[in-house]
């Protein structure tokens, strides 16, 4: 990191608060500290689709997420993104590494759906702006790149508060709530299994969808390993499914439906149709 480049980039970033150049300058500032293959700036919203505010990538497709899989993420699959869930479930703010916050079987469970990304390492900031919205900066390395080093993460972690302050000022000055399509994807997840499963089975089902293993679910719920296995067996018996991967595939298939009915248990609807 060149100190003069860092200082100049920080001055430029600060001066661009409230302007259309802010996101580009934020990328330029971070690029004086670390190298990355992609930087996304997203707005999470519990009641609306995730909004892409800015994208930089070495693939040349800046300011856009290309392809059907990326569209699915922004309109549907974001609901199971560990960064989004950390905000939606716990209203957390801070600097995080994906491998530290993701459920223990997330990579395995979702490799089929997100293998087009080929992510080697992923870091992210979460800046909740109100009860329903969160400003998210996502930094990734792909392919043959090396994971972010401990020094990289330490530097970025120290920037959490300054970047939160600048981004909050930017959003306030810009006063840009954005045109965001209303979404009930979060509602679909929350109600999935609520009517057909017992309370404990429902909790296990929700954790399975997020990518937790049997061992992890037992620890989270403070119940025995065999008890979790029993709940899983009951879930699969009631739903005519046989595995966590089939449960996940069913949920993702339901997410692709148009329109998505609100305040209903889509798992119950599925079972009733069998």
Automatic annotation (TrEMBL):
SUPFAM superfamilies in the cross-refs: C-terminal effector domain of the bipartite response regulators (SSF46894)
One Pfam entry name: GerE
Keywords: DNA-binding, Transcription, Transcription regulation
UniProt-listed Gene3D superfamilies: Winged helix-like DNA-binding domain superfamily/Winged helix DNA-binding domain (1.10.10.10)
Protein name per UniProt: DNA-binding transcriptional regulator, CsgD family
Keyword Transcription regulation found: yes
Keyword Membrane in record: no
Listed PANTHER family: DNA-BINDING TRANSCRIPTIONAL ACTIVATOR DEVR_DOSR (PTHR44688)
Superkingdom of the source species: Bacteria
One GO process term, biological-process aspect: regulation of DNA-templated transcription
InterPro entries (UniProt xref): Sig_transdc_resp-reg_C-effctor, Tscrpt_reg_LuxR_C, WH-like_DNA-bd_sf
Domain HTH luxR-type: 190-255
Molecular function per GO: DNA binding
């Amino acid at each position: 990191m060149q100190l003069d480049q860092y200082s100049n980039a920080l001055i430029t970033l600060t001066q661009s608060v409230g302007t259309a150049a802010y996101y580009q300058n934020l990328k330029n500032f971070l690029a004086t500290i670390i190298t990355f293959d992609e930087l996304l700036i997203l707005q999470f919203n519990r009641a609306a689709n995730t909004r892409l505010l800015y994208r930089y990538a070495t693939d040349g497709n800046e300011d856009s997420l290309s392809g059907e899989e990326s569209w699915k993420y922004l309109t549907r699959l974001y609901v199971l993104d560990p960064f989004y869930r950390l905000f939606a479930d716990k209203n957390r703010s801070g600097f995080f590494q994906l491998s530290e916050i993701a459920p223990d079987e997330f990579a395995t469970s979702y490799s089929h759906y997100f293998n087009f990304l080929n992510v080697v390492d992923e870091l992210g900031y979460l800046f909740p702006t109100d009860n329903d919205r969160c400003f998210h900066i996502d930094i990734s390395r792909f392919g043959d790149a090396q994971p972010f080093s401990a020094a990289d993460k330490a530097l970025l972690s120290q920037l959490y508060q300054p970047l939160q302050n600048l981004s909050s000022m930017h959003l306030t000055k810009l006063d840009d709530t954005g045109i965001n399509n209303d979404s009930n994807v979060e509602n679909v997840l929350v109600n999935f299994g609520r009517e057909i499963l017992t309370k404990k089975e429902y909790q296990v089902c929700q954790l399975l969808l997020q990518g937790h293993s049997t061992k992890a679910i037992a620890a989270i719920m403070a119940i025995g390993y065999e008890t979790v296995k029993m709940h899983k067996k009951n879930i699969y018996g009631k739903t005519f499914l046989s595995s966590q991967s089939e449960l996940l595939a069913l949920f993702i298939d339901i997410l692709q439906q148009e329109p998505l009915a609100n305040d209903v248990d889509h798992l119950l609807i599925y079972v009733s149709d069998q």
